[in-house]
Amino acid sequence: MAVTILVVEDEPAIQELISHNLKRAGHDTLCADDAEQAISMVNNVLPDLVLLDWMLPDMSGIEFARKLRRESRTQSVPIIMLTARVEEQDKILGLDAGADDYITKPFSPRELIARIKAVLRRRLPEMSDEIIALGGLKLDPTTHRVFVYSIKDPSKLTEFTLGPTEFRLLHFLMAHKERVHTRAQLLDRVWGDHVFIEDRTVDVHIRRLRKALEDIGKDGLVQTVRGTGYRFSIESAMETASTAG
Ligand code: CA
């Protein structure tokens, strides 16, 4: 699970230590010495996670976290605060500002990597390489293969093919099952940041994905939520199936 992590830390030795360990863990890193530099980096490339020092020279980490949470482009980026403060009150303040977790300095590199992994698994399940089996489908992100379980014999799997975009779309929807996603959110998370394509494109690929699911008898899993967007749902798919049957 290689992700891009922005490290905002003004102490060069700590920044270097973090960056070195993140690279060793297979992540791409961006490093900023202060909030201003971090903002311009974020405007350029949307990171998958931000490691944010509490005390920065130009703006507090708390203020920076709030700023990220206020803007729609950055509001869902996971944030881990780095702090030398250990008081309960400060931790609450950090979490209130929208941080997902905090790490108290000094920390061990192993703890840092483990915390990052835990936050990513929780916040960005579609970045994980874990196999997802759901609604009679089995999706393997590593091999980019997707299978359907036979209804008569659940031990039997049949592979079916999807285009690369439909595969990523299905992976994202399955990783966030039962949740509704707007077209804009899907564009951001499936197509990537700063991609200038129309919302309509999402509909086109949703249609293709549905057609592929229909062909294997799995229609109803990808649903339109009127006026909002799309979701992958097993519960309502079963309801639809039982009403129809
Ligand atoms: Ca600092």
How would you characterize this protein structure?
The chain has 245 residues and is of the alpha/beta class. It has two domains: 4-127, Response regulator (Rossmann fold, 3-Layer(aba) Sandwich), CATH 3.40.50; 132-244, Winged helix-like DNA-binding domain superfamily/Winged helix DNA-binding domain (Arc Repressor Mutant, subunit A, Orthogonal Bundle). It has helices spanning 12-24, 35-44, 61-70, 88-96, 109-123, 164-175, 183-191, 199-215, 235-244; strands at residues 4-8, 28-32, 49-53, 79-83, 101-104, 132-134, 137-140, 145-149, 157-160, 222-225, 229-232. The strands form three sheets. A five-stranded parallel sheet has the order 2-1-3-4-5, with helices on both faces. The protein has a four-stranded antiparallel sheet with strand order 6-7-8-9, with helices on one face. Strand 10 (222-225) and strand 11 form a beta hairpin. Helix 6 packs across helix 7 and helix 6 crosses helix 8. The protein is elongated and about 60 Å long. The termini are far apart. The model is unreliable at 241-245 (pLDDT under 50). The site of calcium ion has 5 residues, from loops. The site of calcium ion (CA) has 5 residues, from loops.
CATH architecture of the largest domain: 3-Layer(aba) Sandwich
* Name of the CATH class of the largest domain: Alpha Beta
Assess the beta-strand content as a share of residues.
Answer: 15-25%
Oligomer: single chain
Largest sheet: 5 strands, parallel
Mean pLDDT figure:
89
Rounded to an integer in angstroms, the radius of gyration calculated over CA atoms is 21 Å
